[in-house]
C-alpha cells in the first residue's frame, strides 16, 4: 500500500486544562505512515492527551480545540465510533478467547472463511504461524505483543495510538517488535501518535518528537 | 516456595485444617442428625428400625409434586432474573457514575432480613397495599380492597418477585466487589477500553469482553444464591401460596408440628430438599455449558452493536421500576413505623405517632447488644481465619484443593433447613450449654463462606511480586502479611467484614435453634414480631435491622477512601 | 369456672368409680396428711428453688403478655431471688422440639427448658413421649385455689388427664370481632356466618390448619354442626377418634366448608398461616369479621392503632369454644424447684387478678373465687376504664363449648389438607 495524502490525524489548537490550569497546548498534524512521538515525565499530561484522543477524557479535565481524522471532525464522536486503534504496553488480550478469537473480535464482520484466512496470513507474517488456537496466556511476552498489534491492525483503524507500547519488552524483543510495529504502520499508512519514555523509541520512530515538561510546554524538533 | 518456620507461618499453615473442621463437622453432623431419622431411626420417638416409611409418607403428601415444582421453579427463575438484571445494570452503567449510585441504593436491600423484605414487598403488592392505595379510589373506584390472589399466587410469581429483589443486590455487590479489586478491575476496564477503541459500543463491549471474565468470579456466588433460594423459608412463607407451600416451608412446618411423628417425614423431606438443590445446581451448570457453546461464534463474529440503545432503555426502565418499588417499600415501612390507624384506601395514615418507636426502643437494648456481640465475634473469627487460609495458599504456592474449595461453600450449597435441626442435636451430643458460643459457631457456618467468597479472589489476585520484593528485602513473612498485604487489601477486607456482619445480623433459624431461643437478637425479635399482628412494631424492627448493617457498609466504603486520601 | 355438663358427668362417674370406692374416712385422713406433707415438701421446694435461673419458654408474639411475664419475673426475683428468663417462642412446638432433641441426645438432666407455656396438642405430644415432669402440680399451694376437685377442667387438657404434669394458668374462649362502621349485619351463628359470607364474599377467612386458631374454628364448626346428631354420636367428639366416628361426624363439616370456601377471602384458594395474620388483614380492611382466642388483644390492639377504634367484639350465640392453658415442667429441667415456685406464683390471686385486667393482659383467671379470702377476692374487682371493645357482646348468654379429644386434630388436619390443601 502506498502512502495516501488523504490519511491524516490533525490536532487543531488543543488546550487541555485541569481545574482552570493549563496542562498543555498542541497544534499538530500527523500524516498517514508518520509517527508523532510525545515524550515527557509522568504528570506531564501524556496520558491525558491520549484519553482526549480516544474520547475518554475524565470529567475533571477540560479540553478546548478540535480533532480531525481524515479531514472529518471527530472531537465529539463517541470513542467506539472514532476508528482510532490503541496499543498499550500491556497486550490486554482477552483471556476467554483464543489468539484467533482475539483477532477475529477486532475484525469487521464478514465471511467466516475469509476472516479466518486473513488471520492466518497475518499471523504468518509476524512469525506466529499455526498459533490460531492457542490461549493468549500461554504465549510469551513478545508473542502477546504481536497478537495485540495484529488485533489493532486487522480492526482496520484510521489512526493508531501507541501508549508506551514497548516498555515491557526486553531490549532484543523491543527492537524487533518496534521494527514490526513501525513497518506495519507504514504498510497500512496510518497516522500514529506514540507516547513513550524511551529515547530509542523516539529515534526509531523517525518522526517528529514533542517533549512535554510537567505543566508547561516545550517543543523540540528531532 | 521455602517459608521460614516461625510461629506465624505455623499458625498460617494449620489454619486450613481448622477452617475445614469448623465447616465440615457441623454440616455433616447436622446432616447425619437428619439422615438417620429420614430412614426411620429416631429412638426418642421409639423408632428404632431403618426403613423407608418416612419417604412413603412424604410422597403420599397431597400436592408434594407441586411443592417440589414450586421450589424448583421459583428459585431457578428468580436467580436467572436476578443474574440477568445484574448483568444488564452492569452493562448499561459500566463506566457511568450511576453504577455507584444504584449500588448505594441497592446495598441496603442486601442487609434487610428476608422476612422484613417480604413483608415490605407484601405491603406494596397486596390488594390493600401501597400501590393499590396510590391508584384508589380515584382511578380504580375501589373503596374496599379487591379480592385478588396476589401475592400468594399458586405460580409463585410473588415469591419470584421477592427472591429476585433480595438476590439482585447480592449479585451486584459481588460483581462490583470484583471490579473494585485493583488488578482485575483495572484489567477489565482496560480491556473494555480496547474493545471500545476497536469500535465496539460499550454495551456490546461489556457482553463480549467483560462478562466472560467477570462471570468466572461470580459463578460460585450465583450457585450459592440458587441453593439458598431453593430452600429459603421466609419469603415463600410470607409471600407464597400455602396451598401447597414450597417444600422448604412444608419441611419447616413438619419439623415444628406438634405431631412429633412428622419429624420422620420432615427429615425425609430434608433429604428430598437436598436432591432438589443439587439438581438445581446441576441444571444451572448445564445451562452454562449450553450458553458457552452457543456463544463462541457470537463472541468473535465482529458485530459491534446489538440494539444497545434499546437494551439500555429497557435497563433504565427495569432499574427505575425496581428502585421505585424499593423506595416505595421503604417509604411504606417508615410510614408504618409512625402510623396511627391507617385504613384502605387512605394513602397516608390518619395520624402519625412515635409510640411504636418509643416502646420498641425501650425493649431493644438487650437484643441490640446480643446482635452486635455475636456479629462482631463471628466476623472477626471469619476474617482472621479466611486471611490465614489465603495466606497459607500463597505460602504453599497453590490454591487449596478442589475438595477444600468445595467444602467452604458446603453450608451455602446445602439447604440450611436440612442440617440445622440436626446441628441442634449435635450440640446436644457434645452437651454444649454455652448459648453464645453455639450461636457464634452456627453463624460462622454462614458468615465464613461469604467472607471467604468475597475475599478469596482479591487475595489470590494480589500481585505476588509485592511479597517477593519485600521478602528479598529481608522482611519477615508475618510483617509482609500484616504490613503489606493487609493494607493493600484494606478495601476488600472491609467490604467482606461488612458483609459478614450483615450476614450474621440477618440469621434467624441458626440463632433461634442453636441459641436454644435464649439469645434474642434484633432479627429473632423482628421475625417473631413480623409473624405477629402489628405491622407497626415490625416496621420499627425492620428499619433498625437496615440501619445497623447499613452503618457498617458505609464505614466499609468510606474508610479506605479516607485512608488513602490522608496518604495523598 | 365454667365447665360443660359433659365434664361434670365424666367427673362424677370417675369419682364414683375411683374415689368413693375407697373409704371416705381414709380419703379425709389422706387429705390431712397430704396437706401436712405438702407443706413440708413445699418448704423444701422453696429452699432449693431460691436463687435458681428459670428459663420460661413462652410464645412471645404479644407485647402485653411479654410485659406481664416481665412483671412476674420481677416479683419472683423479689420473693425468691429467682432469675426468670422469658424465652420468646414463635411457636410453642419449638420448645417441644428442643426437649425432644435433648431426650434424643440422652440429656436427661440438664435441659434448657425449665418451664413451658403449653396446652392441647403440644401437651398431648409431650405427654405421649414422656417429656414432662409428672405429679407436681398438686404440690403447689395455690393449685388448691382452683378448686380442682370440683373443677375437672383444671386437671384435663383438651380431654387428656394432666396427671400433675401441668398447672393451669389461664383460660380463653373463641371471641369474634368486627368493624362496627363497616358491618351492620354481624353473623351470630355458624349458619349466619355462611349466609353473611355469601352476601359479603372475600371478607372472612380462617388460618390454615394445623394452626391453632384455624383448628379452633374448625372445631367450633364441627361442634355446632354435630348438634343435629343424637347425643351418643356427639359424645364421640370427646373420645379418641375412630373410623366409625369419623364417618359419622366429619362429612357435615366438609359439606359446610365446601359451601363456605368459595365465599372466603381469596375464594378460599389461599389461607393465612397463623392467627395473628387475621388481625393484620382486619387492620388492612381486607377482612371485616374475624376471631381470636384472646379477647383482650382487641382493645390493646386498638390502643396501638393496629385495629380501628370502631372494632367491637362478641361471642357466637350458638357456642364459643373454650380451653385452659397451662404451664408444664420438662422432665429434664435442672431447675425444677424454681420452676415450681414460678408456677405457684403465676397461680397466686395477685398474679391471676393482675393478668385478668384488660389493660394488663385480659386473660381470664383460673381461680375459683369461692376459695379466696375477701381481700384476695377484692383484687379481682374491676374499676378500670375500658374501651368499648372490651365489653364482649353476648358474653353472658353464650354456651361454652369444650375442646375435642386431641386425636381429632390430626384427622381433621390431614383430611383438610387432602381436600383443600392443594388448589
Automatic annotation (TrEMBL), chain A:
PROSITE patterns, A to Z: ABC_TRANSPORTER_1, ABC_TRANSPORTER_2
The protein's matches in SUPFAM superfamilies, at most eight in alphabetical order, are given as: P-loop containing nucleoside triphosphate hydrolases (SSF52540)
Q: Which segments constitute the ABC transporter domain?
A: 1-222
Source organism lineage? Bacteria, Pseudomonadati, Pseudomonadota, Gammaproteobacteria, Alteromonadales
Which Pfam families does this one have? ABC_tran
Q: Does the keyword ATP-binding apply?
A: yes
**InterPro entries found in the cross-reference section:** AAA+_ATPase, ABC_SmlMolc_Importer, ABC_transporter-like_ATP-bd, ABC_transporter-like_CS, P-loop_NTPase
Q: Which UniProt keywords apply?
A: ATP-binding, Nucleotide-binding, Transport
Q: Which molecular function term from Gene Ontology is one that the record holds? A: ATP binding
Query: What's the protein here called?
Result: ATP-binding cassette domain-containing protein
From TrEMBL, chain B:
- ABC transmembrane type-1 domain residues: 64-282, 368-556
Q: Does the keyword Transmembrane apply?
A: yes
Q: Which Pfam families match?
A: BPD_transp_1
Membrane topology type, per the record? Multi-pass membrane protein
- Please give the start and end residues of each transmembrane region: 17-42, 68-93, 105-135, 155-179, 270-291, 317-339, 368-390, 402-427, 433-456, 486-505, 539-559
Q: Keyword Repressor: yes or no?
A: no
InterPro entries, per this entry? MetI-like, MetI-like_sf
Which PANTHER family does this entry report, sorted A to Z? Answer: INNER MEMBRANE ABC TRANSPORTER PERMEASE PROTEIN YNJC, MOLYBDENUM TRANSPORT SYSTEM PERMEASE PROTEIN MODB
Q: Which family does it belong to?
A: Belongs to the binding-protein-dependent transport system permease family.
Query: Know the name of this protein?
Result: ABC transporter permease subunit
From TrEMBL, chain C:
One Pfam family, please name it: SBP_bac_8
The record, for InterPro entries, names: SBP (IPR006059), YnjB (IPR027020)
Going by the UniProt record, its keywords in alphabetical order are:
Signal
Q: Where is the signal peptide?
A: 1-28
Query: Could you tell me what this protein is called?
Result: ABC transporter substrate-binding protein
Give the organism the record lists. Answer: Psychromonas arctica
Amino acid at each position: 500500500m502506498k502512502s495516501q495524502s488523504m490519511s491524516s490525524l490533525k490536532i487543531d489548537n488543543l488546550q487541555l486544562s485541569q481545574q482552570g490550569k493549563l496542562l498543555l497546548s498542541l497544534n499538530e498534524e500527523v500524516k498517514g505512515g508518520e509517527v508523532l512521538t510525545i515524550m515527557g515525565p509522568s504528570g506531564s499530561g501524556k496520558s491525558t492527551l491520549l484519553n482526549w484522543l480516544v474520547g475518554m477524557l475524565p470529567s475533571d479535565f477540560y479540553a478546548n480545540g478540535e480533532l480531525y481524522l481524515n479531514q472529518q471532525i471527530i472531537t465529539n464522536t463517541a470513542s467506539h465510533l472514532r476508528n482510532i486503534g490503541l496499543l498499550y504496553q500491556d497486550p490486554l488480550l482477552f483471556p476467554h478467547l483464543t489468539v484467533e478469537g482475539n483477532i477475529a473480535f477486532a475484525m469487521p464482520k464478514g465471511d467466516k472463511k475469509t476472516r479466518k484466512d486473513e488471520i492466518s496470513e497475518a499471523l504468518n507474517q509476524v512469525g506466529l504461524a499455526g498459533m490460531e488456537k492457542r490461549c493468549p496466556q500461554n504465549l510469551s511476552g513478545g508473542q502477546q505483543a504481536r497478537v495485540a498489534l495484529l488485533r489493532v491492525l486487522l480492526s482496520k483503524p484510521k489512526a493508531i495510538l501507541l501508549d508506551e507500547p514497548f516498555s515491557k519488552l526486553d531490549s532484543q524483543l523491543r527492537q524487533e517488535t518496534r521494527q514490526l510495529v513501525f513497518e506495519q504502520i507504514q504498510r497500512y499508512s496510518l497516522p500514529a501518535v506514540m507516547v513513550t519514555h524511551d529515547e530509542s523509541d523516539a529515534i526509531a520512530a523517525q518522526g517528529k518528537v514533542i517533549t512535554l515538561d510537567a505543566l508547561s510546554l516545550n517543543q523540540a524538533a528531532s | 516456595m521455602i517459608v521460614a518456620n516461625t510461629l506465624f507461618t505455623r499458625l498460617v499453615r494449620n489454619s486450613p485444617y481448622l477452617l475445614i473442621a469448623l465447616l465440615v463437622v457441623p454440616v455433616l453432623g447436622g446432616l447425619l442428625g437428619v439422615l438417620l431419622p429420614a430412614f426411620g431411626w429416631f429412638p426418642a420417638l421409639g423408632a428404632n428400625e431403618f426403613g423407608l416409611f418416612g419417604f412413603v409418607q412424604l410422597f403420599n403428601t397431597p400436592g408434594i409434586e407441586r411443592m417440589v415444582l414450586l421450589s424448583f421453579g421459583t428459585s431457578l427463575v428468580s436467580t436467572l432474573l436476578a443474574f440477568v438484571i445484574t448483568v444488564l445494570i452492569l452493562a448499561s452503567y459500566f463506566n457511568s457514575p450511576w453504577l455507584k449510585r444504584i449500588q448505594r441504593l441497592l446495598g441496603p436491600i442486601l442487609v434487610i432480613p428476608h422476612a422484613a423484605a417480604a413483608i415490605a414487598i407484601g405491603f406494596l403488592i397486596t390488594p390493600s397495599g401501597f400501590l393499590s392505595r396510590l391508584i384508589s379510589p380515584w382511578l380504580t373506584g375501589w373503596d374496599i380492597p379487591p379480592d385478588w390472589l396476589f401475592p400468594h399466587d399458586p405460580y409463585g410469581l410473588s415469591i419470584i418477585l421477592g427472591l429476585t429483589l433480595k438476590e439482585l443486590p447480592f449479585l451486584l455487590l459481588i460483581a462490583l466487589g470484583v471490579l473494585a479489586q485493583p488488578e482485575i478491575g483495572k484489567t477489565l476496564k482496560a480491556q473494555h477500553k480496547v474493545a471500545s477503541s476497536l469500535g465496539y459500543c460499550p454495551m456490546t463491549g461489556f457482553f463480549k469482553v467483560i462478562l466472560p471474565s467477570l462471570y468466572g468470579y461470580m459463578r460460585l456466588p450465583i450457585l450459592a444464591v440458587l441453593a439458598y433460594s431453593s430452600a429459603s423459608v421466609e419469603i415463600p412463607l410470607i409471600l407464597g401460596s400455602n396451598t401447597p407451600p414450597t417444600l422448604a416451608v412444608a419441611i419447616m412446618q413438619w419439623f415444628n408440628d406438634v405431631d412429633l411423628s412428622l419429624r420422620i417425614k420432615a427429615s425425609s423431606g430434608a433429604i428430598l430438599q437436598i436432591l432438589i438443590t443439587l439438581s438445581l445446581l446441576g441444571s444451572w451448570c448445564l445451562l452454562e455449558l449450553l450458553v458457552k457453546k452457543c456463544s463462541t461464534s457470537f463472541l468473535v463474529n465482529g458485530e459491534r452493536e446489538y440494539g444497545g440503545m434499546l437494551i439500555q432503555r429497557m435497563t433504565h426502565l427495569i432499574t427505575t421500576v425496581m428502585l421505585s418499588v424499593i423506595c416505595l417499600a421503604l417509604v411504606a415501612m417508615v410510614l408504618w413505623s409512625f402510623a396511627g390507624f391507617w385504613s384502605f384506601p387512605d394513602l397516608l395514615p390518619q395520624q402519625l405517632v412515635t409510640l411504636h418507636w418509643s416502646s420498641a426502643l425501650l425493649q431493644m437494648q438487650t437484643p441490640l447488644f446480643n446482635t452486635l456481640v455475636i456479629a462482631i465475634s463471628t466476623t472477626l473469627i471469619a476474617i482472621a481465619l479466611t486471611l490465614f487460609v489465603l495466606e497459607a495458599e500463597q505460602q504453599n504456592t497453590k490454591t487449596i484443593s478442589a475438595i477444600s474449595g468445595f467444602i467452604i461453600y458446603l453450608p451455602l450449597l446445602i439447604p440450611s433447613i436440612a442440617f440445622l435441626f440436626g446441628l441442634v442435636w449435635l450440640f446436644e451430643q457434645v452437651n454444649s450449654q454455652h448459648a453464645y458460643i453455639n450461636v457464634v459457631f452456627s453463624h460462622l457456618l454462614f458468615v465464613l463462606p461469604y467472607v471467604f467468597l468475597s475475599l478469596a479472589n482479591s487475595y489470590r489476585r494480589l500481585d505476588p511480586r509485592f511479597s517477593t520484593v519485600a521478602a528479598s528485602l529481608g522482611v519477615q513473612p508475618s510483617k509482609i502479611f500484616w504490613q503489606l498485604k493487609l493494607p493493600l487489601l484494606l478495601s476488600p477486607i472491609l467490604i467482606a467484614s461488612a458483609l459478614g456482619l450483615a450476614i450474621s445480623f440477618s440469621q434467624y433459624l441458626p440463632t433461634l435453634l442453636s441459641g436454644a431461643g435464649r439469645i434474642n437478637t434484633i432479627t429473632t425479635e423482628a421475625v417473631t414480631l413480623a409473624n405477629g399482628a402489628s405491622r407497626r412494631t415490625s416496621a420499627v424492627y425492620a428499619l433498625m435491622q437496615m440501619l445497623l448493617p447499613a452503618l457498617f457498609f458505609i464505614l466499609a466504603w468510606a474508610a479506605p477512601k479516607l485512608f488513602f486520601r490522608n496518604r495523598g | 369456672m365454667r365447665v360443660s355438663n359433659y365434664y361434670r358427668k365424666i367427673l362424677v362417674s370417675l369419682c364414683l368409680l375411683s374415689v368413693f370406692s375407697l373409704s371416705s374416712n381414709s380419703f379425709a385422713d389422706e387429705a390431712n396428711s397430704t396437706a401436712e406433707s405438702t407443706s413440708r415438701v413445699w418448704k423444701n421446694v422453696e429452699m432449693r428453688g431460691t436463687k435458681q435461673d428459670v428459663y420460661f419458654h413462652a410464645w412471645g408474639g404479644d407485647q402485653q403478655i411479654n410485659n406481664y411475664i416481665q412483671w412476674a419475673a420481677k416479683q419472683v426475683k423479689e420473693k425468691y431471688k429467682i432469675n426468670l428468663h422469658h424465652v420468646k417462642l414463635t411457636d410453642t412446638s419449638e420448645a417441644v422440639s428442643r426437649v425432644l432433641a435433648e431426650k434424643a441426645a440422652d440429656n436427661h438432666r440438664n435441659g434448657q427448658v425449665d418451664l413451658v407455656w403449653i396446652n392441647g396438642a403440644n401437651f398431648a405430644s409431650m405427654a405421649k413421649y414422656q417429656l414432662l415432669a409428672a405429679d407436681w402440680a398438686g404440690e403447689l399451694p395455690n393449685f388448691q385455689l382452683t378448686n380442682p376437685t370440683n373443677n375437672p377442667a383444671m386437671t384435663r387438657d383438651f380431654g387428656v388427664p394432666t396427671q400433675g404434669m401441668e398447672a393451669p394458668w389461664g383460660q380463653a374462649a373463641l371471641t369474634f370481632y368486627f368493624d362496627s362502621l363497616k358491618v351492620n349485619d354481624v353473623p351470630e351463628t355458624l349458619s349466619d356466618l355462611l349466609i353473611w359470607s355469601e352476601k359479603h364474599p372475600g371478607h372472612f377467612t380462617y388460618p390454615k390448619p394445623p394452626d391453632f386458631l384455624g383448628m379452633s374454628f374448625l372445631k367450633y364448626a364441627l361442634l355446632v354442626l354435630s348438634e343435629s346428631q343424637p347425643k351418643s354420636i356427639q359424645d364421640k367428639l370427646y373420645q379418641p377418634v375412630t373410623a366409625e366416628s369419623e364417618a359419622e361426624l366429619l362429612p357435615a363439616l366438609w359439606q359446610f366448608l365446601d359451601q363456605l370456601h368459595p365465599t372466603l377471602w381469596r375464594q378460599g384458594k389461599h389461607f393465612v398461616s397463623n392467627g395473628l395474620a387475621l388481625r393484620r388483614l382486619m387492620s388492612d380492611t381486607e377482612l371485616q369479621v374475624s376471631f381470636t382466642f384472646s379477647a383482650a388483644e382487641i382493645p390493646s390492639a386498638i390502643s396501638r392503632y393496629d385495629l380501628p377504634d370502631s372494632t367491637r367484639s362478641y361471642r357466637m350465640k350458638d357456642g364459643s369454644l373454650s380451653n385452659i392453658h397451662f404451664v408444664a415442667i420438662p422432665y429434664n429441667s435442672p431447675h425444677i424447684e424454681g420452676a415450681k415456685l414460678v408456677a405457684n406464683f403465676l397461680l397466686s390471686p395477685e398474679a391471676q387478678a393482675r393478668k385478668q385486667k384488660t389493660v394488663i393482659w385480659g386473660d381470664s383467671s383460673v381461680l375459683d373465687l369461692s376459695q379466696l379470702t375477701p381481700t384476695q377476692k377484692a383484687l379481682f374487682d374491676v374499676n378500670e376504664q375500658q374501651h368499648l371493645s372490651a365489653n364482649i357482646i353476648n358474653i353472658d348468654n353464650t354456651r361454652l363449648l369444650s375442646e375435642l379429644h386431641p386425636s381429632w386434630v390430626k384427622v381433621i388436619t390431614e383430611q383438610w389438607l387432602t381436600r383443600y390443601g392443594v388448589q
